[in-house]
Design goal:
Length: 199
Amino acid sequence: MSDPQTLAVYAREAERYRARFADKGADGHLQAFLDALPAGADVLDLGCGPGRAAALMQADGHRVVAMDATPEFVAQARALGVDARLARFDDLDAAAAFDGIWANFSLLHAPRAEMPGHLAAIARALRPSGLFHLGLKLGTGEERDALGRFYTYYTDAELQQLLTDAGLTVSHTDFGTGEGLSGRTDPFIIVTSRRVPDA
């Protein structure tokens, strides 16, 4: 993610964003992701924000690398003991390095035209049958929210096709609604998939 306006919002709102989730344990989606990983897995938190999920994965016994394009979030994650690195989505160039990749409401800030490339890089970075968690907002088109952050919205069918095209097999899909930092409540989709072993 490299949109300057979105990065500026997160830099300005980093502490307020961190405080929203500071004392929360693993929710159902994170717990399901943890339960599906092998013991002592190598995991990437792609777009880690303040590092809460990465820290919980680490506490569960996994080796975690976290990436985020916002320096303030990287500093917050490091303060939790997370190996957090300042990087954008398109900096991911690993090959068969991870048993799991967690991208929870981070890739929704990437332009639609860039998503196929990001998903292909994620598939390459996963080991065969590696687990991928993706959270996005449901809808169509692209827009900025009230805070100025850039968002891309996806339909279920569109997302399923994108994942398939990237060499990922969808194993579970979940839907819900949630209130974001801007105060708006939006529908979302959570998709769990695995790298096709011979992809």
